[in-house]
Amino acid sequence: MSLARMIRSAMGWLVASFYGSIMLVTMTLSAIRRGPRAFFGYKVRQDRPKCLDDPDLGTHGYVRLESSGLRFHYVAAGERDKPLMLCLHGFPECWYSWRHQLKEFRNSYRVVAPDLRGYGETESPQPFGYRGWPNFSLSHLTNDVRELIEALGYSSCTLVAHDWGGVVAWNFAIDHPDLVDKLIVMNCPHSGVFAKYLRTHFSQFRRSWYMFLFQLPWLPEMLVKSFDFEMITDTFKGKEMGCKRRDAITDEDLEAFKYTFTRPGVNISGAINYYRAAMKTPPRSYRGTKVTCPTLMIWGDQDGALEVGLTEGTDKFVPDFTLKVVPGASHWVQQDQPEVVIGIMRDWLKE
């Protein structure tokens, strides 16, 4: 291990421990105030919310990928002879994040929204828990996308992505330009832009506290599960991070996302291990790399986790780049303002 990497690792652990200490005190006080039974009172959800089986959203399918052996779950809408639109979700979501796009674009595309590795009904690689983080490196995640496209019977796709799905999509488009016809990324900065911005903007560093917290073992899992996954409620409906449109996320939608993390046999560490792998593996250099396909970035300007300034400089890595900011929309832009986002997508795809 190089000296620079050792220093980077030590600094990461220092920041993670700082946020972990704060969170441990906060969680302890909450458990005392609201009671330990409430704190540890999360429930395994045996029954699927009905919205996950809405036939208007498409049909459920499964494919087993060759190199990993993992069985991937997806929902598909549209005829098989239409071009593929592949939609990658973020954290803490699942395929259901793309419910509006599945219905809207099914007449023009074969729209496929998978559960990513370790999410929902897609299998999670062994070992479970903190020690499994090496299985969630970007090389594994981008290879999943490549094999998924092939398993679905296609040679390329229009790739649509949000949040962590966007991280995967940016890197996939760089490494596999022949497999991406067009790229649409929502509220996820290009990785080369994010790394520099994080170093030079302390305001974004503060907003990224959870990325450092997630480097610790067991504590993040406890936080996510506490008070019956209240963090997921706050994420989608809270004042800071939640959708700005009041009816954007219904109670049933919320249960659908909680079901992703509470269904029997789920590996809750899988989703958190995306963050662990991102910081524990050597950072990639994006110098000289380009996304060669036409690319659309859609950004909700009321994102509680990512500043709008992260959109600046993207054109240095993406020659054919279009940016559309959605005023008043949260991080969950495609769910917060689905009609606006769909309109932007449709107009751009026609070009």
Folded structure, characterized:
This protein has 351 residues and is of the alpha/beta class. Helix content is 42%, strand content 14%. The chain has 13 helices and eight strands. It has helices at residues 3-34, 36-39, 99-104, 138-151, 164-175, 191-200, 202-207, 209-213, 219-237, 251-262, 269-280, 333-336, 338-350, and strands at residues 59-64, 71-77, 84-88, 110-114, 157-162, 180-186, 295-300, 321-326. An eight-stranded mixed beta sheet has the order 1-2-4-3-5-6-7-8, sandwiched between helices. Helix 4 crosses helix 5. The longest helix has 32 residues, at 3-34. It is globular, with a radius of gyration of 19 Å.
Short overview:
This protein is of the alpha/beta class and 351 residues long.
Based on the model shown, name its key terms:
351 residues, alpha/beta, eight-stranded mixed β-sheet, 13 helices
Low-confidence stretches: none
Largest sheet: 8 strands, mixed
Q: How many beta-strand runs?
A: 8
Percent of residues in helices? 40-55%
**Shape annotation:** globular
Number of helices: 13
Lateral arrangement of strands in the main beta sheet: 1-2-4-3-5-6-7-8
User: Nearest-angstrom radius of gyration?
Assistant: 19 Å
H-E string: HHEEEHEHEHEHHHHHHEEHH
Strand content: 5-15%
Structural class, from secondary structure content? alpha/beta
- Taking the alpha carbons of the first and last residues, their distance comes to 48 Å
* Average pLDDT metric: 95
